[in-house]
């Protein structure tokens, strides 16, 4: 139910985007040129790949393997903790990339109050960023629970699965946002 309500929230943001885009298309044509597609594509790739590492962590959790069983460099033997830590780092990298992009755009004069495009851009990507930060907090909770568990069992594995649902949802929303904001010119 909660993910469904989140889906409706983002549907509202998409509706706002398309409504304003239809009202002032000339602003969109001008402002989309300010976006750095290459940088955004790299940042997006990191976030999408974090879904892969998250799922690898879920599979390790389902095997009840919280920790690696070999060298840190033996990725095939990583446990849930290693995969989820890597996922966390990739998500944090994405947020850092968003902040960098915001700083660049503000320097170029695109602010939340500079135009309808600025408002929609920062609201949609900003709310998504807040959701990514929420996922990062969930990963910290998941890792804390894993490290404090005397015995890693179904409860910890289920927590990993639930956190992964949210993370995959956030990634899918970003793919849609990326397509609409960066690719649909």
UniProtKB/TrEMBL annotation:
Bilayer-crossing regions: 39-61, 82-100, 120-144, 165-184
GO CC terms in record: plasma membrane
Membrane as UniProt keyword: yes
PROSITE patterns xrefs: COX3 (PS50253)
Keywords annotated in UniProt: Cell membrane, Membrane, Translocase, Transmembrane, Transmembrane helix
Reaction catalysis annotation: 4 Fe(II)-[cytochrome c] + O2 + 8 H(+)(in) = 4 Fe(III)-[cytochrome c] + 2 H2O + 4 H(+)(out)
Any single GO BP term: aerobic electron transport chain
EC numbers, comma separated: 7.1.1.9
Pfam families noted in UniProt: COX3
Record CDD domains: Heme_Cu_Oxidase_III_like
Membrane topology summary: Multi-pass membrane protein
UniProt GO MF annotations: cytochrome-c oxidase activity
EC primary class: translocase
Compartments (UniProt record): Cell membrane
Heme-copper oxidase subunit III family profile domain residues: 1-185
Main location (coarse class): membrane
Protein family: Belongs to the cytochrome c oxidase subunit 3 family.
PANTHER family documented for this protein: CYTOCHROME BO(3) UBIQUINOL OXIDASE SUBUNIT 3, CYTOCHROME C OXIDASE SUBUNIT III
Protein name: cytochrome-c oxidase
Organism field: Cellulomonas aerilata
């Amino acid at each position: 139910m909660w993910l469904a309500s989140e889906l409706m929230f983002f549907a509202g943001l998409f509706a706002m985007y398309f409504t304003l885009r239809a009202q002032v298309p000339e602003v969109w044509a001008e402002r989309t040129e300010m976006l750095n597609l290459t940088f955004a594509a790299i940042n997006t790739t990191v976030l999408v790949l974090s879904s892969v590492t998250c799922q690898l962590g879920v599979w390790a959790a389902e095997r009840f393997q919280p920790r690696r069983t070999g060298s840190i460099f033996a990725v095939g033997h990583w446990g849930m903790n290693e995969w989820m830590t890597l996922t966390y780092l990739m998500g944090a990298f994405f947020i850092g990339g968003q902040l960098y992009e915001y700083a660049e755009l503000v320097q170029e004069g695109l602010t939340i109050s500079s135009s309808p495009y600025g408002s929609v851009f920062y609201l949609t990507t900003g709310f998504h960023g807040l959701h990514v930060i929420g996922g990062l907090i969930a990963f910290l909770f998941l890792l804390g629970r894993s490290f404090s568990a005397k015995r890693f069992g179904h409860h910890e594995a289920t927590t990993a699965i639930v956190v992964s649902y949210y993370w995959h949802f956030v990634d899918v929303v970003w793919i849609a946002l990326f397509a609409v904001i960066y690719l649909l010119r």
